[in-house]
């Protein structure tokens, strides 16, 4: 008998959904979080990274040995670096220089070439440079912000998993919004199952710097974003997101990044408004890629 052993790519997705035990307090609501840090490269972005490369291959747009280019704030870059290593592509990643040292090191560990732009140029500048390199013939931009294979990964994967794991009882889905791929794909799937499911997006307040999520200027709004798929948007303060992130580690044993803390903070707010709800928030990644920033050193007050 021939045994079938999975490859690392087979391990993307099917992440755990777990119940929060202490943070919700006394409530009739069930608060659940999906642990996307359990993906092989450590974040929810493993899903669209593999999807964008695999589906582009199937369409004949790329083949192993080609050079791929992407602007990233971190997690997508790490995930793409893993996927490129699996499939045999060269990869150029462009990132603002204020992202954490762990993120930069993880990308280069997988063999990617890293190009940094200034904090002032930010993700907008990184996206512009990626397009410039493509025009110069350096490689192909996958463009997670406009690539339908990004939300498709969540429509075919994350959404069905959540519906199955909650046995169709989910009432609220909460997700940070960066490229918006996660919330677009999951919303599309869940709304097809039940129009009553509330889709809640999270963006930073003006002036807040929460890694991985943005308030996009209109001209840079991701092309995959469809406003009608989000029922409510919550503005999140950086301090609140960081406080809940630390509480998740210390009170729930869930070690994650700032945007995940923000999503759970939003879920805790929503829980004060309703009863007998089943809420799911996305834990985007793991906290170990933020340690050098000192965000876990700040005591709760």
TrEMBL record:
Residues 9-285 form the Tryptophan synthase beta chain-like PALP domain. Its EC number is 2.5.1.47. Keywords: Amino-acid biosynthesis, Coiled coil, Cysteine biosynthesis, Pyridoxal phosphate, Transferase. The modification N6-(pyridoxal phosphate)lysine is found at residue 45. Pathway: Amino-acid biosynthesis; L-cysteine biosynthesis; L-cysteine from L-serine: step 2/2. Pyridoxal 5'-phosphate binds at residues 75, 178-182, 259. Its cofactor is pyridoxal 5'-phosphate. This is Cysteine synthase. It comes from Pseudomonas taeanensis MS-3.
